[in-house]
Amino acid sequence: MQYFNERMFNPNYINSTYYQANYATIQQNYQKEQSIHVVKLVKAFNDMLDEVQQMDNEHQKQAFSLCLEEMARRNGWIK
User: Fold this and answer.
1) Is the pTM of this model over 0.70?
2) What are the angstrom distances between the C-alpha of 44 and each of 36, 75, 77?
3) What span, in angstroms and rounded, lies between the C-alpha atoms of 60 and 54?
């Protein structure tokens, strides 16, 4: 890892003038990528709600519990 870090963050290899000159474009690209993730999330959430409408109450409870469990696992709250 040291080899990587020495080269990745070494000012001799990073052209700060180029980075500063292109900062606005870099930020715009970042914001665009983040917006795409938001759109994907909203679509996935909408798809989830469509699926929930097709379930009876017992299966909705099961899905709810499993979704909470997955959220907890992903956030490291449980193993």
Assistant:
1) no
2) 12, 19, 23
3) 9
What's the alpha-carbon Rg for the chain, to the nearest Å?
A: 22
Tally of CB atoms within 10 A around 22: 13
What are the CA-CA distances from residue 55 to residues 42, 45, 67, 78 (Å)? Answer: 20, 16, 15, 27
Closest by alpha carbon to 66, among 48, 54, 53, 50? 48
pLDDT digits (tens, 9 = 90+) for 24-60: 998 999 999 999 999 999 999 999 999 999 999 999 9
The count of other CB atoms within 10 Å of the CB of residue 4 is 8
